[in-house]
Amino acid sequence: MTKQVLMLAGDGIGPEIVAEAQKVLNLLNERMSLGLVFDHALVGGAAIDATGGPLPEETMAKARGADAILLGAVGGPKWDALEMAIRPEKGLLGLRSGLELFGNLRPAILYPQLADASSLKPEIVAGLDILIVRELTGGIYFGQPRGVRTLENGERQGFNTYVYSESEIRRIGHVAFEAARKRGGKLCSIDKANVLEVTVLWREIMNDLAKEYPDVQLSHMYVDNAAMQLVKAPKQFDVLVTGNMFGDILSDEAAMLTGSIGMLPSASLNAEGKGMYEPCHGSAPDIAGQGIANPLATILSAAMMLRYSLQMEAPAQKIEQAVSVVLDQGFRTADIYSEGMKKVGTAEMGEAVVAALNELI
Ligand code: IPM
Ligand code: MG
User: Fold this and answer.
1) Taking residues 135-141, what's their average pLDDT?
2) Which CATH code, of 3.30.390.10, 3.40.1370.10, 3.30.420.10, 3.40.718.10, is assigned to 110-265?
């Protein structure tokens, strides 16, 4: 049986890092007969240049037809002046909402080999293994009304709407409780219930759901405190669940605990487990085209894709082991480099993973 995988390279470093994930997947496909069939399509700035819009109908159709999607990154200064509705980021947001990929899993795991690369003291981050569950298709990112209007006095006013319906909170809550149940059994829900009504409802629903999960210990934290606790004592957390915007911010913060945002994969899932997989970092236009970006977050995203959408646990683990092996071997891209290690570029890192994988399968 074959599985259709759509590769969306996107912009900036996207094509460079996706190319390395492709090498890894090709090797597994060949050696372990996974039956993966790859297709490619345009999204983001690349799609704007070719078609005038960030999410062409053809891309959306291929995305709907695929069993899983691997995406690089979108956006860059070239398209920054465009109006909001046709910016590259709208391509990504359109995929997320069009495919109802509401459940975003962002694991932040510190590879012991990289304890020195974190900006925090090794004892604070050693052994770190947390999971951020971010709601991805609602909240202030998608709330209506939104825009910039001109008031009667001639002054302009920008506005967005922070809105969550009960069903949206419930479904992301279930994802988070289920994840906590399979991990350390602790779930911390992040809100701003001291100020925002929408998160008062969020907290109420999480408390309600907790009754269905007596084996999971639920706690609540305001987002400002959570931002502080993440750098003060991150190991107190197991699973965190939060809305779209808080999750965006906290996941970048959590990424840095692991040494580099270049290490963090993510999965965005719909109710049926279909998903899009992407590194948590962006298109990094400042280093695009130089061959120095870290491909590991994308390679680890490919592992998540095999695990969550394609039910291929064994090859997923092989990828994760291979990443650990190359770190043991001392290979480091610039973002995770420390004295005495072997500094390599994007392609060399990808090839090192392929070589390690070759030994493991
Ligand atoms: C992320 C990114 C995106 C987001 C951008 C590129 C739209 O920052 O995936 O975290 O804000 O969700
Ligand atoms: Mg982000």
Assistant:
1) 98
2) 3.40.718.10
Ligand 1 is surrounded, with C-beta below 6 A, by 75, 89, 92, 248, 280, 282
Name residues whose C-beta falls within 8 Å of residue 46's C-beta, 6 or more positions apart in sequence: 9, 10, 11
Q: Is 82 exposed, middle or buried (0-12, 13-18, 19+ CB in 10 A)?
A: middle
Q: Where does CATH 3.40.718.10 sit in the chain?
A: 1-102+270-361, 110-265
Crossing angle of helices 197-210 and 166-182, rounded to 10°: 50
CATH of domain 1-102+270-361: 3.40.718.10
Best of 11, 69, 92, 245 for a ligand 1 pocket test (most atoms within 8 Å of beta carbon): 92
Question: How many A from CA of 125 to the centre of ligand 1?
Answer: 25
Structure tokens at 111: 């590879």
What is the reported pTM?
0.94
Task: Name 270's Cβ contacts closer than 8 Å, sequence gap at least 6.
Answer: 99, 100, 101, 102, 103
Ligand 1 atom 5: the closest Cα is on which residue?
Answer: 89
Residues 331-354 have pLDDT tens digits of: 999 999 989 999 999 999 999 999
CA distance 298 to 293: 11
